[in-house]
Design brief:
The complex is a heterodimer. Chain A is an all-alpha fold. In chain A, 72% of the residues lie in helices and 0% in strands. By secondary structure, chain B is an all-alpha fold. Chain B is built from 24 helices and no strands. The chains are: A mainly alpha, B mainly alpha. The A-B interface holds A 46-47, 49, 69, 72-73, 76, 97, 100-102, 104 and B 55-57, 59, 87-90, 92-93, 121-123.
Amino acid sequence: MNKHLVLILGIATLVGCNTITSQVECDNAIDWLSLGSEVALAGKSVRDFDKYKASCGDSLPGNAQALYLDGYTAGIKQYCSYENGFKLGEKGIPDPQICPLEIRAEFDKGFRIGALERREKQQNRELAEREKDRALISSDSAMSSVGG
Amino acid sequence: MNKLTPLFFASCAFIAVNSLPSKASNLTSKFKIEVEQPTFVLPQFSGPYSEKEANIAPEELETAERLRGLLESGDKQAVLKELEAFYDIELSVAMLMLKAQLYFALEDYEKAEKTYLASLARSPHLVRAHSDLGQLYLIKDDQHKAREYFAKAIALGANDAVVYGQLAYLNLTLHGPYSAINAYQQALAIEPEQAQWQQGLFVALTQAKMYQAAAALLSELIAKSPNDSKLRLNQAILSLEQNDSRAALASLEMAILLGDKRETNLKTAAQLHLQQDSFERAVELINTHLSQYDLDLTSLNTYLTWLSQRGLWQQSKTILASLENKLSTFDGQTKSVIYLHKALLNSETANLNAADSAFKLALDANPNHGQALVAYADFLIDRKSFTQAETLYLRAEALSDWQKQAMLSRAQLYVDIQKYDAALTVLKSVTSRFPETRGISEQIALLENIIVTKKQQAEI
């Protein structure tokens, strides 16, 4: 029963996080094009713009959204590369799932291969540790038989 | 496949035969046959689900299913509202295309254009976006852009008769017939029974003066549909283009027999009959025209003038008599034309008093009727009423269309009554206003000689 309650609360918190928009400073000097690009390159969702909409309200410049989206679209093309996918997968960073379908394939491939490499390295590490443990165990038993 | 509201637009206009350049310019400038122009119909557009080029993202499948339901119930606004809640970059190109198509269907052309272009920026080879943009630019009457996008759609592999047909139409309009023929043939190859492509190909072949090919196409179509009046009209156009007015008339008569009663075509048939001296049928067609359509002043005047030029007074009389009891319903200009032709008829048949009265009625009905002023003045000269005739010519000279003719007639009047100085003055005035008038300098020289001779005779 307690387990179920924890799970439901967990989902509620997740949904809540999704809708909360943190306050940002509404600065007239913001370069919206660059901001869009930076957000994409940081692997964040395009929805990051929503917090500016919420904070700035009517004072948001008329062309801000268009510029932001242009910057984001350019940035996302750069972000969704094979190399970047590989890097994320290799580091075990979760796929942010922001790549549009038409440019997703290379990123996904890189991510999968990166994740595979990470897993292999981890397995190799684990194997090496097990070998080390086994070596230690066998040397301990040899010692005890000498002692016996 | 989601089918949204089909958008239609069509173009129907005259094919004025004289717009087709040909050796037969003298002939064709006289005749007009009205037929259907190539038209096009925007196809029903399907949703993106059947598109090969744009796929839905797996995470959108659930949304797509829900939107499909809404589309099937016809709630386009609701679908659009859902799609507008996303930033474009969050949507797959397939969903973006759906959004563009919805704007298009809801006639928000600016947003539709922007969204299609956004789709193409992400998937430049999307055939459907190119062909839809072609349609959009056609609606926005930007033929050059429409052509560009249809051509691109075909280059990318569109195999759609409508796209070929529209490219053909635009090529025909913008670049001449040769660039249209192949595209029409492609459209026809995909949809062999589609009348729009048949008509388009025929027009392109005719304009390209590929008469044999055009005739072969027509023969095939006529063999399939012998009772199609439009095909007979095309045959008539083809014959006129080749200066064969007898064959043109035969085809035109066939079209009329099959039910085509368009005003222009009745008029052309009547004119061709007059040209070929088959007066009875000409008058029959004239009567059909005049009884079936609101009286058109130009046609009426043309008919009565043709008949009077050929001396067909009895036929003129029949037509005029048929209009007698409707006279009170006509405006002043129409009444004036009818009275003028009555006057000419009476004048020719020596009913001079009746002619005189009819001329007066014509000018009462329309005091600025140039043809009536000049004709009445000519009539009065025959009756030696020179002063009255002079006044009428002077009135006609105030009307720009009749100025030259009235001045020349007045000069002739002065010669007839031996007022050579006055005649010379008028002719010189004609020369200065209408320097292109042929033979006038000889007339002036002749008059000057007469005046000198007269002076010399007086001195002796």
